[in-house]
Design a protein that fits this description.
about 200 residues; alpha/beta; D-Maltodextrin-Binding Protein, domain 2
Length: about 200
């Protein structure tokens, strides 16, 4: 979670200010129910806060809305935001992972701040149901080898994108927990009607 020209120096400041001005402060996202909207709502629901939502047409426009002073904060991944934070244009308030990002060691995680929330944008490899075990074994080994490849790791590091490989059994546990958590957040958002 990042913000720009606001007096918020921390999540504690944000919570105090938004609590006093429920529904007046705003955030931008890449669109309804997307990878920037859902985690913001996850935090807002947990902290019992209300903010106005500016859905845009993508992550770039959402960040531009923040940089331009049209909203008070946004959420995004390290690849898109780290350069703005390092340049002093944005301030990182909290991270969504289970540990601090290596490039932003001064930005605490929500877990550290007492909020029991995590959010990840992840990629998984899926195969059709009924794929033979022998084929699945080969696929899993190939993916593991690709993730461990030093060139791949170097590219991901250059993109400020941390890796966390989970093999099928661990990924299934993660999937089940993540799907349940996200369903609860989306239910809390409710149906968003288009304005006529």
């Amino acid at each position: 979670m990042v913000q720009s020209e606001s007096p918020w120096k921390s999540v504690k400041d944000l919570v105090a200010d938004v609590s006093k001005h429920q529904g007046e402060k705003s955030f931008s996202s890449s669109g309804l129910y997307g990878a920037m909207h859902v985690p913001t709502e996850m935090f807002l629901q947990t902290a019992k806060l209300k903010m106005r939502h500016l859905p845009t047409t993508g992550g770039g426009p959402a960040i531009t809305a923040l940089l331009g002073g049209h909203v008070d904060m946004t959420v995004g991944g390290p690849a898109a935001l780290t350069s703005h934070i390092k340049a002093g244009k944005l301030r990182g308030l909290a991270g969504w992972g289970n540990k601090r990002h290596a490039l932003l060691p001064d930005v605490p995680t929500f877990m550290e701040l007492g909020y029991n929330i995590e959010y990840y944008v992840w990629v998984g490899l899926f195969a059709p149901a009924g794929t033979p075990d022998a084929a699945m074994k080969v696929l899993r080994a190939a993916v593991r080898k690709a993730v461990d490849d030093s060139d791949f790791k170097a590219v991901m590091a250059k993109l400020n994108t941390p890796l966390n490989y989970l093999d099928a059994p661990e990924f299934q546990k993660f999937w089940d927990r993540d799907a349940k958590q996200l369903a609860e957040v989306v239910k809390g958002i409710g149906r968003v009607e288009a304005k006529k």
